[in-house]
Amino acid sequence: MNSSKLAIISDVHANLEALQSVLEDIGAQNIKDIYCLGDIIGYGPNPIECIDLVMEKCTRTILGNHDQAVIFDPEGFNPVALRAIFWTRDQMEQNIGGTTKSDQRWDFIGELPRRIDEGTNLFVHGSPRDPTNEYVFPEYVYDRDRLEQMFRRFELYCFHGHTHIPGIITESGKFLAPEDVGYIYKLNQEKALINVGSVGQPRDEDPRACYVVLQRDEKIVEYRRVKYDIDTTRNKIYGIPSLDNMLGDRLNRGN
């Protein structure tokens, strides 16, 4: 076990093939410590299997907005996302695997925290200002007031997901995509918002699953891209009437 490394995943979105491939990549590095920054479910065809895997494999998990929407009344979702949320809720209500296992899933989602604060490292789904729902887009580097409000809310580094767009926003106002830094970012004393990307539905025009490895001792963030069987996931989506075909189409494009 490599105790100095932490794998950070986010936005699985019920994409079992992507999650399995990422977990295999994490396992190949002998990393046992895994944080999930939310949105285990929503959009994708395998919510039950993905919840079970996250429950089994992840050390700590945060509530995402899609996770929250399945339990509570969903607000602010477009029609495609809303239909997927209701379909996902229906799947969870079918007691797959028995009542005890089903209750464990509901309890797990219902008890997820909105943030994990570890001093210099803050972990959220959305933003340090609104841990569940607020987006942090790359273009926010041009909105100094917004960024200053966010940077005031954490000590040094904030790891998040939600936009499905990996990259780093520094306090000095730069956005660094993973390829801009050779997929390796050396942490320093400058505050940074670090988006770990999406496992199950990348939106940076790279269809490969994305996550990061935090090397605690070396103070390095490494972005990793992992290929997975997109066709299998896409065809599952096409076979479920409640999941719009565009949710499968976009997986090939990575947007």
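(the above was protein one; protein two follows)
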Amino acid sequence: MISMENVSAGYGKCEVLHKVSLEISGEGITTLIGANGCGKSTLLRVLLGFLPLWDGDVRIDGISLKEMPGAELAKRVAYLPQGKDVPDISAERMVLHGRFPYLSYPRRYRKADYEIAEAAMEQMGILPFAGKQMSRLSGGMRQKVYIAMALAQQAGIIVMDEPTTYLDIGQQLKFAQMMRQLAESGKTVLLVLHDILLALKISDRMAVLEEGQVRQWGAPEEIIRSGVIRRLYGVDVKSHRTEAGEQYYYDLPGEIAHVLENP
């Protein structure tokens, strides 16, 4: 469970978040959306303890970050940042990084750590690639390695910042399936996404940030009905129920649709 109470934070003298209150409880997928510069990544940095609070409090499983050691936070929250470098190590070595919060100095992996990493790779279907170098894996396969690393961390909360940036449409659909599997296994998943349609499709709940504040919060259909997407992005989103579930699409203004159809 994540609870943010009247959180204010920023950089230097510039306040980015203004008294943000947000509660994410239980299993499921929660997505943060909003225009560039609205405070999404800053909110994650505060939640992860990377950026100090100016005011308010953040609680993870009822415990304030002010009272939680970094190693304990890492056992509760796994983080996959945006724009990760590709290290010159094997997939297995990358997944083992998820065990760092449990190691004492000097960091030497135990038998149990290898077993947990192997189980995480097997869950993600990448065990046959354990010995492959990260640089030789496709973007989609690397993403599976990073998720396996988060699983090896055994945290109840998984946080990802723009995880689909380098994935093609096929990989994005597979990613959505992976996120649903994680949520159904009991994980709390928190994502920052720019792709509004993907966010609507995979989310149980969504938070819309604007100018450092939460403007809208609720299920995808509530977000659509609120009109906030049109106000922020200048387009309407419609939904259509199919045998495969709810499908979302942009309802473009006539003049834009005409240009797209007749380039």
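Reviewer note on protein two: Residues 169-184 form the longest helix (16 residues).
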